[in-house]
Amino acid sequence: MKVSRFAPSPTGRLHLGHAYSAVIGHDLAGESGGTFLVRIEDLDQTRSRAEHVDGIFEDLRWLGLDWAEPVLVQSQRSEVYADALDRLRAMGLVYACYCTRADIAAALAAPHGPAASHYPGTCRDLPEDAARRQAQPHSWRLDTAKALALAGMPSWREGGTTITADRADLDDVILARKDAPAAYHLACVIDDSASGVNLVVRGADLRSSTPVQRLLQTLLGLPEPDYLHHPLVRHDDGRRLAKRDLAPTLAAMRAAGVDGRQFAHALKHGELPAGFRLRDA
Ligand code: GLU
């Protein structure tokens, strides 16, 4: 039985691409007699809005999808993430990083798109300095080299095959920052495990997140889920769905009288409205 999840960030209204992801995850769980979960990924408090959380539930109901409770809300789970970070720190796998806020904001933001260039390692070998940590905002990064020495190169199962990561796929990602207890990767693996997710369904734009997440799972002794990185909904000309491209929100479709259940049924069969298509990346 599959336990899948849809894990939107409430930074805007859901659009066609979100609907596709939710429908695929919901159906794979349902077909196996399993469970579909929803998780609210609102760690980026500068961009997350409560009204978008309400909108997510409204949109999913309109699609005819049902989900099991509880809905995990990441902003309410700071202590769980802090514990996990403590464990990694105790293993000597984490270091304080004092690099600019711009770096940190990028790491906390939605994890889509090509992997940013690797962290240059500026703070990796700084001497332990508790006084500086007290005085100066900092984040915590994973020491990838040490983590790999302990856990080995990560691999994951997808569509019946096992894929092994490359060293270049892994970076000293930010795990937490001083004013936010966890960044995306750490929160994601903790929550997937806490909810018993055994099938991670998400877009191909998040495939680059999987190596480091598998590494964190191994380090923290968490179970290994299966993965499905599905094709992405794009405009016919290949553009990503984005607000500036006037991607239709589900709210707008609902307001225009579209039947949500029929729409979800069509999506399940890969039938998209005119002007859109599925692309692998
Ligand atoms: N919160 C992420 C997003 O909205 C999804 C993360 C995931 O599915 O692992 O794109």
TrEMBL record:
<dbReference type="InterPro" id="IPR001412">
    <property type="entry name" value="aa-tRNA-synth_I_CS"/>
</dbReference>
<dbReference type="InterPro" id="IPR049940">
    <property type="entry name" value="GluQ/Sye"/>
</dbReference>
<keyword id="KW-0067">ATP-binding</keyword>
<comment type="similarity">
    <text>Belongs to the class-I aminoacyl-tRNA synthetase family.</text>
</comment>
<dbReference type="GO" id="GO:0004818">
    <property type="term" value="F:glutamate-tRNA ligase activity"/>
</dbReference>
<feature type="domain" description="Glutamyl/glutaminyl-tRNA synthetase class Ib catalytic">
    <location>
        <begin position="4"/>
        <end position="251"/>
    </location>
</feature>
<keyword id="KW-0547">Nucleotide-binding</keyword>
<keyword id="KW-0479">Metal-binding</keyword>
<protein>
    <submittedName>
        <fullName>tRNA glutamyl-Q(34) synthetase GluQRS</fullName>
        <ecNumber>6.1.1.-</ecNumber>
    </submittedName>
</protein>
<dbReference type="InterPro" id="IPR020058">
    <property type="entry name" value="Glu/Gln-tRNA-synth_Ib_cat-dom"/>
</dbReference>
<dbReference type="InterPro" id="IPR014729">
    <property type="entry name" value="Rossmann-like_a/b/a_fold"/>
</dbReference>
<dbReference type="GO" id="GO:0006424">
    <property type="term" value="P:glutamyl-tRNA aminoacylation"/>
</dbReference>
<dbReference type="Pfam" id="PF00749">
    <property type="entry name" value="tRNA-synt_1c"/>
</dbReference>
<keyword id="KW-0648">Protein biosynthesis</keyword>
<keyword id="KW-0436">Ligase</keyword>
<keyword id="KW-0030">Aminoacyl-tRNA synthetase</keyword>
<keyword id="KW-0862">Zinc</keyword>
<dbReference type="GO" id="GO:0005829">
    <property type="term" value="C:cytosol"/>
</dbReference>
<dbReference type="GO" id="GO:0005524">
    <property type="term" value="F:ATP binding"/>
</dbReference>
<dbReference type="InterPro" id="IPR000924">
    <property type="entry name" value="Glu/Gln-tRNA-synth"/>
</dbReference>
